[in-house]
From TrEMBL:
This is Fatty acid desaturase family protein. The chain crosses the membrane at residues 51-71, 203-227. InterPro entries: FA_desaturase_dom, Rhizopine-oxygenase-like. Residues 69-312 form the Fatty acid desaturase domain. The keyword tRNA-binding does not apply. It holds the Pfam family FA_desaturase. Keywords: Membrane, Transmembrane, Transmembrane helix. It comes from Octadecabacter dasysiphoniae.
Length: 356
C-alpha cells in the first residue's frame, strides 16, 4: 500500500508537526556578491528567446496549414506541438518565477500566454509552484510530485501524450467556472485569488468552445490542431525532461542534492526546456534567471553531485529504481558528492540502506 500524498490528509499535518515541512534548505557556501551578479535579469535575452519561440510556432503553424492534408504537414505539426505543449511549460515556469524578463509586465504577458497553452490557471499554479519550492518533494505538502510511490507507470506513460493532464485541466476549469475550489487548492491558494481563478476559467472555456465550433463549422480539425490538441501531441518533451527533475530521488529531506537532479542536454533541448536541465541549481537559487544557470552551475558544482551526462544516461539510472519501487517503495538513487564537497546532512544516512 502506497503513502498518502493527499495534501488534505494526515501526512501533511504530520510533516508540519514534526518539522519536515518548510525546511531550512542546504545551500552551498558561495559569495553572495557572485549570486547577486547572476540574479541580474535581461529583457534583451528573454525577448530574443521569446520572439524565436513564438516566431517558430507561427512559421510551423502556417507551413503545416498550407501543406494540409498531405503527409508533408506532419513534421511541421509535430514541431509546432512541441513548442506549444512543451516549450510553453518552461516559459510558464520561468515567467511564473518572474525571472525571465527584467520588466515585470513582460513576464506577466508571457506567463499568461503559456498558462493558457498548458491549461494551468495562472493564480492556482503560481501558488502551487511556490509551495513546490517551499516543500520540495515533502509528502503531503508538495502539490507537484509527478509520481507517488509505488509509481504508476501507466499514468506516467499517459502523461507523455497529455491524456491525464488535459483531463485534469478541463475538470479543474469546469470546477473553477462553477465557482468552486478543490480541497487541495484551498491549502495553498489565497481566498483573494478566487474571483480571478473563476473568471479565467470561464474565459478559457469560452475560447475552447469557440475553437470547437469553428472546427465543426469549417469541417476541419485545423482549429483544434492549432489550439488545444498541441497540449496533448506536443507534451512528450516536457514530460520526458520533467520526469527527470525529482523522480527516483529522496522524499522528505532538506537538501536539494538528495531530491533534485541536473542533466546535461544539447542546445535544442535546452532551448525548449529553457535551461531547466540545471534543475538542482535552480532549486537552490530560484531567483537566478534561466540564461545564467550554466554560470551558476560552474560556480557551485564543487558542492554538487555530478549531473547525468545525457537524457539517455539519466533514464538508464532512473528506470531500474522505478521498477524496484513497484515492490520496494523506499528504493532511491543516492549520488556521490565530489571530493571536498560539503557532506550530506545526517538524514542521508537512512537513505543509504535503500540506495541503488
Amino acid at each position: 500500500m502506497g503513502k498518502n500524498y493527499d495534501l488534505t490528509g494526515p501526512t501533511g499535518r504530520a510533516a508540519l508537526a514534526n518539522g519536515t515541512a518548510n525546511p531550512a534548505w542546504f545551500r552551498p557556501d558561495v559569495d553572495p556578491k557572485d549570486i547577486r551578479v547572476l540574479m541580474q535579469k535581461s529583457d534583451a535575452i528573454a525577448l530574443r528567446d521569446t520572439v524565436l519561440w513564438l516566431g517558430l510556432m507561427i512559421v510551423f503553424a502556417i507551413t503545416a496549414t498550407l501543406l494540409w492534408p498531405t503527409w508533408w504537414s506532419v513534421p511541421f505539426w509535430l514541431a509546432y506541438g512541441v513548442l506549444y505543449g512543451s516549450g510553453a511549460d518552461s516559459r510558464w515556469h520561468e515567467c511564473g518565477h518572474k525571472t525571465a524578463f527584467k520588466t515585470a509586465w513582460m513576464n506577466t504577458i508571457v506567463y499568461h500566454i503559456a498558462c493558457f497553452m498548458m491549461m494551468r490557471n495562472p493564480a492556482v499554479f503560481r501558488a502551487s509552484h511556490v509551495r513546490h519550492h517551499t516543500d520540495t518533494i515533502i509528502v503531503g505538502r508538495d502539490p507537484e510530485i509527478v509520481a507517488m510511490r509505488p509509481p504508476d507507470l501507466i499514468n506516467l506513460a499517459l502523461r507523455a501524450v497529455g491524456v491525464v493532464d488535459v483531463y485534469d485541466a478541463f475538470k479543474g476549469m469546469v470546477r473553477h467556472a462553477r465557482g468552486r475550489i478543490s480541497g487541495e487548492e484551498e491549502m495553498y491558494v489565497a481566498p483573494t485569488d478566487h474571483p480571478r481563478i473563476f473568471r479565467t476559467a470561464r474565459i478559457w472555456l469560452a475560447i475552447y468552445a469557440a475553437t470547437l465550433i469553428v472546427a465543426i463549422w469549417t469541417a476541419s480539425i485545423i482549429p483544434l490542431l492549432l489550439i488545444g490538441l498541441p497540449r496533448m501531441y506536443g507534451a512528450w518533451h516536457h514530460v520526458m525532461t520533467g520526469v527527470l527533475q525529482h523522480l527516483g530521488l529522496a522524499e522528505n529531506v532538506s537538501d536539494h542534492r538528495l531530491n533534485t537532479r541536473s542533466v546535461m542536454m544539447n542546445r535544442l533541448n535546452r532551448f525548449i526546456y529553457l535551461n531547466m536541465n540545471y534543475h538542482l541549481e535552480h532549486h537552490m537559487f530560484t531567483m537566478v534567471p534561466y540564461y545564467n544557470l550554466p554560470k551558476l552551475h560552474a560556480l557551485i558544482k564543487h558542492d554538487l553531485p555530478a549531473p547525468d551526462p545525457s537524457i539517455i544516461s539519466a533514464y538508464k539510472r532512473l528506470l531500474p529504481v522505478l521498477i524496484k519501487q513497484l515492490n520496494y517503495e523506499d528504493a532511491v538513487i543516492l549520488r556521490d558528492l565530489p571530493d571536498g564537497a560539503t557532506p550530506y546532512r545526517a538524514e542521508a544516512d537512512k537513505l543509504r540502506r535503500h540506495a541503488i
